[in-house]
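look at this record:
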Amino acid sequence: MTCLPGYLSSGGGGGGGSRPCAALRAWLKASRRHPPSPPSPPSPPPPPHRHLLTSTPSFYRVAEAAAAALAGRGASAAPPGPAFSPAAFSSSSSSSSSSSSSRRCLSSPAPSRGPGGFRPARVVVVAKTTRYEFEQQRYRYAELSEEDLKQLLALKGSNYTGLLERHHIHTKNVEHVVDSLRNEKIEVRLVKRREYDEDTVRWADAIVAAGGDGTMLLAASKVLDRLKPVIGINTDPDRSEGHLCLPVRYTYSFPDALQKLYRGEFRWQWRQRIRLYLEGTGINPVPVDLHEQQLSQEQHSRAHVNGRFQDHKSQISEPHLLPVRSLNEVFIGESLASRVNYKSCKPSFKFSLHRASYYEISVDDGPWEKQKSSGLNICTGTGSKAWSFNINKIANQAVEEILTIAKSYDTLDPPLSKELVQKVTNRYNESLLYSPEEPKMFFSIREPISNRVFSSSRQRGFASKVCIRSRCWDACMVVDGGTSFEFNDGAIASILINTEDALCTVVLEE
């Protein structure tokens, strides 16, 4: 395996001095003469300790899904578990629309119907940082030429030509969005991540996130005004999912989207967000931007140490509201779940234990429960399609094995077919999703450890409020995968949803 020079992986290097540049070029020249041998395949990981983990989904919920499938219920039947019915939500919303229409007109940025529509005067376009730009910024201090960067990416197994092509596609689509806005006499500011701040948000009437779901999360993170719309445009549909963005066709025909906004051919969608309070001892409310930390190539555990100030790290007796809102999810856990502790045993040998996240949890002001797990995920309806879904979903193989066990007890009469297994799997997984406008959270305990000391009475479920008291050693609370707060022993987090924090987005009529 080829190792990069030390200054490439340490984040140092003198900030662009001549010695790192000369050393890097010499190393690149030598690597061209002697190409590295292909890396050897990694050794397979050791099998997990199955007796400690309880990550297998509940047998009873799968059995309920199987019973519903066997009973031949139609699509209108409610799925088992914490499912949300969009039809029920829309009907309840429409029944109260007449009584609240005047109130919506006062609280919305503009009426969603009528000749006026929504016509912003000033728009901020937040453009994502492409992988090509990221690699350029990552090694900018070394003053690499394009050829040097190409060779370096090749040694890392990346395709320089492919990255440059995707960069050009993104840039072309961003220019299309900006030109479309300016053609409508709208004042536009095009900014990148580092230029996007609270002052920029206050200046704008609306925010356009030009990138993918990650850019949408970045754009939403600094918008605390619920009357300021945030609109997502997927600038690279072939490589980005874009769940939070407008349909792909508006990437290439953004003027059509603007005309629908002008004519009022849309509805406001209020995506609920999570707010966080911190209190207790050892609190450090100074956040770490994980994107900037990644650019510096600094270890995450060192990032919090380097950003720590004694004035901020103190005891907070009253809950301190953090200046961020989570659109997708909040994750709490040890920074390095694979960190190994060595314990000595007499007479003279040592054994290792992987560090689990140790905390106490209270759901909806209920009793506190001590837990150890691989971490805790708390999501909104928007985030129920993201990490939370992948934590809790089950595969066809697991369903088939459970139904086979059930059949051995003579509880299933029909033959076990692939169609039945697929139907049960889909029904269970769909029950994990709910509307982004629902003011509730869904928490998931990742791989809880259950023994006579630690328990997990509920591995997942809906909640209005979740409180966590940290007993961790080197833990973080990460908001939407981009902002991290230190969360160690003595810190207490209160996590809840306030409807005043809802993010204003649009759904265009098709």
Remarks:
- The CA atoms of residues 280 and 491 lie 5 Å apart.
- The two ends are 52 Å apart (CA to CA).
- DSSP finds 17 helices and 21 strands in the chain.
